[in-house]
Amino acid sequence: xxxxxxxxxxxxxxxxxxxxxxxxxxxxxxxxxxxxxxxxxxxxxxxxxxxxxxxxxxxxxxxxxxxxxxxxxxxxxxxxxxxxxxxxxxxxxxxxxxxxxxxxxxxxxxxxxxxxxxxxxxxxxxxxxxxxxxxxxxxxxxxxxxxxxxxxxxxxxxxxxxxxxxxxxxxxxxxxxxxxxxxxxxxxxxxxxxxxxxxxxxxxxxxxxxxxxxxxxxxxxxxxxxxxxxxxxxxxxx
Amino acid sequence: xxxxxxxxxxxxxxxxxxxxxxxxxxxxxxxxxxxxxxxxxxxxxxxxxxxxxxxxxxxxxxxxxxxxxxxxxxxxxxxxxxxxxxxxxxxxxxxxxxxxxxxxxxxxxxxxxxxxxxxxxxxxxxxxxxxxxxxxxxxxxxxxxxxxxxxxxxxxxxxxxxxxxxxxxxxxxxxxxxxxxxxxxxxxxxxxxxxxxxxxxxxxxxxxxxxxxxxxxxxxxxxxxxxxxxxxxxxxxxxxxxxxxxxxxxxxxxxxxxxxxxxxxxxxxxxxxxxxxxxxxxxxxxxxxxxxxxxxxxxxxxxxxxxxxxxxxxxxxxxxxxxxxxxxxxxxxxxxxxxxxxxxxxxxxxxxxxxxxxxxxxxxxx
Lengths: 238, 366
Prior knowledge:
- The complex is a heterodimer.
- By secondary structure, chain A is α/β, with parallel strands linked by helices.
- Helices cover about 40% and strands about 25% of the residues of chain A.
């Protein structure tokens, strides 16, 4: 196996006295799509936030591209190529779609390339081209999810982390968003996908981790997890 | 091309009007009103500074007048008989701006994690602390002269040219208030220019992103700590410049010029005029200086004429009307009198956008 892009050792995160993440180990190879599934409150979002630098871990190591990054601030990790699509999308509601995308390229300075990437995003999400100058807060939930994803891609990340992209979307829109995730992955992007919708996540992912009250309880090939009796019982409704 | 030329004509006309304004005002209403125009310019600078903090970065600051105080006291202490120092204006004004900037960072640093109501309360406290310090720094060592304030402050002066004395050129007499008007106008234009440049810069966009969603902003690679500190520092710098000019113009400073009410007034200018929009903020500044003054001068004689006596003290009537005007404006124009295009789109969507929004709600499947 080639050396992993992201290697997390014994990551611990606490809110006050409460341990939300109790020693998580996971790794992502370059170009791999990995799903992190689990029920509400299992610590999935907390794990992602710690990886993005939005929370300070209480312990453990985060090795990204061969470097320890656990002490870097969020903006420094973005510059290194780690991008997060936050839970609930967190778009800039009172900025236009285009301004949102440009904010994604904040860490970059190559104006021509940024313009080219903007055009690429419009190709990937034709809907956003139509809505370019509309305030992002006035878009539908699915379109806002597209804005959030395109915005993250504008930083030209090597690792894209998605937090619950299916949340609150109509089934058809969920299909569409997951097709796009599959496309982005096919282009070689390394992706860490956090989802409550375990079946959907494991269908697109190559590998998966199952998280339960702050710890990884199960991991393996996505297909194996989909077939596993334990996962079926707990997350896929028999 | 045509539009360009038209815009040029507008700007030329506006320039002539601004240059002629003190003479027109003087001829029509007298010297006192030129003085009021001078104050309006000082307040516009203040409002534009606060606009950076509140309008761009979305950080509610209720103690903004403290930076005005820092600028004013810097000028007063270094250019008055208080310590026998008479430093020149070109040294004292930037120093006041620098001190104010330092105090901006001093206020910003401990409040980085606060937002909304909590930030408002801390900044309000900060404003009061500065004022109370100025009020009490007369013992055991007398620095600020306490509540009596500092008087005999040097007039604004560049080399041998004093703005505090009347000058005559080409047979036209320029009184001190006229000269101050031109000086303040130059500074105001500078502040407007800097505000405009900031608004459309990378930093300006970062401020707006933080205003919208701070967590998302830091996930975009914005160093939120530095960018927020920069907003406080820039806003405070404008406040400090305005304060220094105020001290030199007035010749006297005392703590009571820097009360909470002043912070509230400046905030009203920003909100009433149109948060985040430079033209709106300027309009807010002009209206909130000129209208209360007009009322002060007009309410007494009008009551005399109507009722033959003064029924309500003009001063209390002024505040009453001010409150009423605030409520009415916020009811009818919630985005301010002259909102930015963004706020306008958000609060008063035109029909095309509104239709598009209605469409999007139902066509998720596309």
